Please model this.
Amino acid sequence: MSESTSIDVLLKERRVFDPSEEFVEQTNVKRWMNKRGIKSYDELLEKAKDLKWFWGEVSKDVVEWYKPYQKVFEWNEPYAKWFIGAKYNIVHDALDKHVKTYRKNKVAYIFEGEPGDVRKLTYRDLYVEVNKLANGLKSIGIKKGDRVGIYLPMIPELPISMLACAKIGAIHTVVFSGFSVGGLQKRISDSEAKALITCDGFYRRGKIVPLKSQVDECLGACHSVEHVIIYRRSMEEIQWKEERDHWWHALTEGQPTECPTEKLDANDTLYILYTSGTTGEPKGVISAHGGYAVGTALTLKWVFDMKDEDIWWCAADIGWVTGHSYIVYAPLILGATSVIYEGAPDYPNPNRWWKIVEKYGVNILYTSPTAIRMHMRYGEKWANKHDLSSLRLLGSVGETINPEAWMWYYKHIGKERCQIMDTWWQTETGSFVISPLPITPLKPGSPTRPLPGFTAEVYDEGGKPIKEGGGDLYLLPSWPAMLGGLYKAPERYVKTYWSKLPHMYLTGDKARRDEDGYFWIQGRADDILKVAGHRIGNYEIESALVSHKKVAEAVVIGKPHEIKGESIVAFVVLKEGEKPDDTLRKELREHVGREMGKLARPDEVWFVKDVPKTRSGKIMRRVVKARVLGAPLGDISTLRNPEAVDEIAFAT
Ligand code: WTA
Model:
């Protein structure tokens, strides 16, 4: 039987992947249930509807407050506060508490650089590095509430920087190192960062990516930044600006190895993380210390069943929320050992990841459908070269995992032994929301049901609840890691998340619920693309195109792509007299790459005379997309220029 027929059969039989009883009994969640006499998962879900009881009870297992809270949470629509009255700092749980126990000698991070260099940092090592940097930051005047930009690749100095900021109560805002000058500039200006931590350069596919030069270019327009701290990674020559620039090693040299952890309010801001929305301006999602610590640590402990002896590898980038929550904060709170890998997954060969799994004995691997599909295309022969028997659980995040990729991952990586935790969540939710636990029967392609302590609902356009069927996906307030608003944009916060139906959080995703209450995520309902797991707004790419001197107008849509999930297709109207040709096509792609980063470069650029617009002049992306995909156009009676629709079809 060929691979695809066997999948068809499995899906037709609606086979459910059930974990064994023996495995279930050993899990963290089952032990927790047994202790409390909770017999079934449904009973747990039912009991957890009492949010105050549930989150209060589980918080005892994962965090230590300096001063206990008086109230578990308060909902003051559209803002939630969690663990009210508690004095807290997430760094206490991530580092300080561990160095007083046997964990001080335990490895917190195993780092492997792309060239093959390896560093292992124990909790004590990490603690010392964080304290020295925190003291260094203080010495240049950084204090509680100040924003610090962090623009670093996947090296241990990235978590060290985040923790050093959190330790002194400063707010970090990490910018993904794959963004270029334009993307960095928008985020640094909006957050009004006082300092920026970066490095000279880093390794990607055997080449050096120069980060500091991008910073120099960006800072011409970001006047808030008084200090730039540069870690030496690639030994690149860099330009130097006296007084503003500091070498990391010089700033931290001789600094005391102890630094008091600021005792904050549990609701004080930990970070701002920018994410794409439907306008050109990214949204600054705010997260607080206390609720975020409880929400992320508990979900990691239960969903990935993290045990003290485990080696955990979340192969995301710390520049996105997955890395914030599940490489930095949650694993450290749980005292885990995590792998951090700097480079490309297929460099120098497609077996790089499997080599890492074997070398360090990784027990739990968490990645994205895009990465799985890429490895699937290279073929299982690369994984088969290595002993992957250490793996116990697998995970997926970022987009819907197609059943073919699910089966390949299950069969060739997990060797039909490992359950796959398909976790649905967002930058805004901070932690997993809809996800199986290792005790949950799985259906390939579905993240199953909301976790205990979370409620998700599906509603149709008319606001009618759908028990079985499809519609908009909403969450009911609140959960501990829920965003605390958008930085400097309270109106946008209300408009984006709280305006479609009353008292419910609009996720922006479409979902279907089946007869077992399982959710099937059908992608974004709004103008946000998911390209190789990266979240990018259509509008942001259009703005980048329009900022080119030869472009008058642009419309960008996503088209299904076998590996990346979506590819970026741009339709461009040139200014009067400009000549459309392949050179310009290439130039426009490069231009977007420079403005935003390579991740946003259109895969296809088409030149058209006009793009479909409403009478009020709004570009109809929906119509363009339908035309490209050959789907029904829907209502086009409001179009001012219906002939532009035909031109789209002609172009592709
Ligand atoms: C999508 C990433 C299907 C979804 C953690 C969501 C998923 C957006 C899944 C958030 C999943 C995330 N199945 N779709 N398991 N996980 N998504 O903010 O569209 O980068 O709204 O957070 O990714 O992307 P973000």
